[in-house]
Amino acid sequence: MKDKKIKVNKKSGLSQKFVEDMYTYLLEEKDKLEKELDKFTTPNPHVKDDREAVFPEYGDESDENAREVADYYTNKNIEETLEKKYIDIKKALVRLEDGTYGICKFTGNPIGEARLKARPTSSASVEAKKFLTNEI
């Protein structure tokens, strides 16, 4: 578990094992995302945790130039999606380390194990999310 002491907030109702399992899972996902992002991005030296898609170079022919542009925009979209997941995972890891994992940031109530299994990075309960998205 990478030498981190994971704190379980009693209010969350989560077991130590569940929290430790989520921590391990999130660390693995973070590593996978870093490796995937490393394939086609470089770190942005001006913004922490930001990456930039690398513009591919296939040649000087018009069809190669068109493919470069198409691949760049595809990679840019993938970069943004993976970056968001990466940031969500890092935030969840911080909550695991500081003992606030499993507690809704809006209500202070437990999030629930089923929601966390479905979306381990969640920081809001289903009820709060429904309220915020006007589903209630």
Question: Would you kindly provide a written description of the structure presented here, covering whatever features stand out?
Answer:
Helix 1 runs antiparallel to helix 2. The protein is mainly alpha-helical and 136 residues long. Helix content is 54%, strand content 4%. It has a two-stranded antiparallel ribbon with strand order 1-2. It starts with 15 loop residues before the first helix and ends with a helix. The chain has a single domain, classed as Four Helix Bundle (Hemerythrin (Met), subunit A). The longest helix is centred in the middle third of the chain and has 37 residues.
Count of DSSP-assigned helices = 4
Annotated CATH topology? Four Helix Bundle (Hemerythrin (Met), subunit A)
Q: Would you count the extended β strands for me?
A: 2
Q: What is the CATH superfamily label?
A: DksA, coiled-coil domain
Helix content: 40-55%
Q: What class, by secondary structure content?
A: mainly alpha
Percentage of β-strand residues: under 5%
User: Strand order, biggest sheet?
Assistant: 1-2
- Assembly form of the protein: single chain
CATH architecture: Up-down Bundle
> What overall geometry do the principal axes of the alpha carbons give?
elongated
Roughly how many Å is the radius of gyration? 19 Å
Mean pLDDT: 89
Along the chain, the helix and strand elements come as HEEHHH
